[in-house]
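JOB MANIFEST
job_type = single_chain_structure
chain_count = 1
residues = 111
[input]
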Amino acid sequence: MIATESQLDDEKVKEALRLVIDPELGYNIVDLGLIYAVLVNDGGVVNIVMTTTTRGCPATNYLKEGARDAAWSVPGVEFVDVTLTYEPPWSPQKMSATAKQHLGITDSGEW
């Protein structure tokens, strides 16, 4: 059964993206703040805009492919496009509170 447009939304895709774990940081790419945008369009087309912690990240292809494959796993998704960007640059401020806690990062306001 194909999901209807109302059943497929960005939150379902983000939930699937949480299964993609950054191999260096050991935490999911959504809570690490690596996902900048998830757009669900007509016809099950999903556009993902993401980054990595650094431009030279050795896990870039792994993370990009992981995001693509995770989005494809959501019922109703018919096409996935993953765009990599470095604007704005990633910083620890983009991480969720749970990711910061997991990694032992405190919000000292000094980024």
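[summary]
DSSP finds three helices and three strands in the chain.
The radius of gyration is 14 Å.
exit_status = 0
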